[in-house]
Design goal:
This protein folds into two domains: 4-222, PPM-type phosphatase domain (Phosphatase 2c, domain 1); 225-389, no CATH class. The two termini are 32 Å apart. Helix 1 (46-65) runs antiparallel to helix 2, helix 8 (299-313) packs across helix 10 and helix 8 packs parallel to helix 12 (367-380). Strands 2-3-4-5-9-8 form a six-stranded antiparallel β-sheet. Strands 1-11-10-6-7 form a five-stranded antiparallel β-sheet. It has a five-stranded parallel β-sheet with strand order 16-13-12-17-18, with helices on both faces. The protein has twelve helices and 18 strands. The chain is of the alpha+beta class. The longest helix is centred in the first third of the chain and has 20 residues, at 46-65.
Length: 390
């Protein structure tokens, strides 16, 4: 068992004028810590394509997570998909990437653009073998993983971007490779890399995509633990126990809340220094404390982080804000969304009288809900979450 993990980000753009996307991505955890990603592209667009791709992705990911062979998966898909009444075929292309125990990647493809592998900043062509299953030519590859290996899977909407507009023959695979190699050394997350790619596709389409366009990026990275302390314990006798457990953990440490940071300063025997700077007038200022990587205010700041987390899981449009701003919420977002892979929450259940004002929004009254929702969002990002209450 190595110290690597798979950072996964994906996003789809609907064909112009369509309410539903004809592509679908499914990510599921299988046996032995395996991660199975399936990107399916249904025939045509709209409702029919959406049904075809969704069924394909869900059937294949579920079956492979249970250890069934690709032959069984393809046969089941072929027997299950509804037949198009116009074309009289049941058709969905697919790309499967299985991350085996963070040591090896198995790539299985049918009629989608070949997966791109960026290694050490450059494209590496993946060797493959071909086989026929139910009359379909399937390619199959296996490759040992290295830290920072980045896989990019996509539907053909990506390589058709710009066709007849900015580019005579569309944005070909080699063009995508050249474009994405530029961003490799920056250290962006899979989600951010994927957003960069899809934004460029949208630009080449002139804001009116001629086809459903989907990409999924998988970056192999080292695990990075992160620890977050929010609120004092319900029982004051637990102050030192809570602090001892928190500061004994490996990784960076974030302390949120005025009372909480005061307790942390007392435990460390260091001065707490407020910074009277307001990079964002809506977010309370941060403070400095030796031995702590970041000290922020509590519920107002965490509520903003939760807003960013929800957006991150959707269109990731707020990235342009939190990626560079220096307020507490933006800094926490960068630490949790981009750096951390394993996050330990230490949550005190003491009631803060200041939050019981009935004139305040309900989010400010229920600290537990903030933590719960943020944990759910981070889990959907692929983070390992552990919450301890005191």
């Amino acid at each position: 068992m190595n110290n690597l993990c798979a950072d996964i980000g994906y996003r789809s753009i609907n064909k112009h004028g369509e309410q539903l996307c004809g592509d679908h991505v499914e990510v599921i955890e299988g046996e032995n810590n395996d991660i199975i990603m399936v990107l399916a592209d249904g025939l045509g667009s709209g409702v029919k394509a959406n049904i075809l791709s969704t069924l394909t992705a869900k059937i294949i990911s579920t079956m492979m997570s249970k250890g069934l062979t690709v032959e069984d998966c393809v046969a089941t898909v072929a027997a299950t998909l509804p037949v198009c009444s116009v074309r009289e075929v049941a058709y969905s292309t697919f790309t499967i990437i299985c991350i085996r125990n963070n040591q090896q990647a198995e790539i299985i493809q049918y009629d989608n653009p070949p997966v791109i592998l960026l290694r050490d900043g450059h494209n590496v062509e993946i060797p493959f073998t071909e086989m026929m299953i139910d009359g379909k030519k399937i390619t199959r590859s296996r490759i040992d993983l290295r830290e920072n290996d980045t896989f990019i899977a996509m539907s053909d909407g990506c390589i058709y971007a710009g066709l007849g507009r900015d580019m005579n023959f569309g944005w070909e695979r080699k063009d995508i490779i050249s474009y994405m190699e530029v961003f490799f050394e920056v250290g962006f997350t899979a989600k951010t890399l994927n957003t960069i790619l899809l934004d460029e596709c949208m630009k080449l389409y002139g804001g009116q995509p001629g086809d459903d366009t989907t990409a999924c990026t998988i970056r192999i990275r080292a695990r990075e633990p992160m620890n977050m302390l929010l609120g004092p314990p319900a029982n004051r006798d637990d102050d030192n126990r809570m602090m001892a457990l928190f500061f004994s953990k490996e990784g960076k440490h974030i302390v949120c809340g005025g009372t909480t940071s005061t307790l942390a300063a007392r435990y460390l025997g260091k001065p707490l220094v407020p910074l009277l700077e307001f990079p964002d007038p809506d977010i309370p200022p941060i403070a400095k404390l030796e031995g702590v990587d970041l000290v922020t205010e509590g519920v107002v700041t965490i509520n903003k982080v939760l807003v960013y987390a929800r957006d991150y899981l959707a269109g990731n449009e707020s990235y342009v804000e939190w990626s560079y701003k220096q307020d507490g919420a933006s800094r926490i977002a960068r630490l949790l969304f981009e750096e951390a892979t394993d996050i330990n929450f230490y949550v005190g259940k003491a009631v803060n009288p200041a939050h019981q004002n009935p004139d305040l929004p309900i989010n400010f009254n229920i600290k537990m809900r903030l933590v719960s929702e943020l944990s759910e969002c981070l889990t959907k990002m692929g983070k390992r979450i552990k919450v301890s209450y005191f």
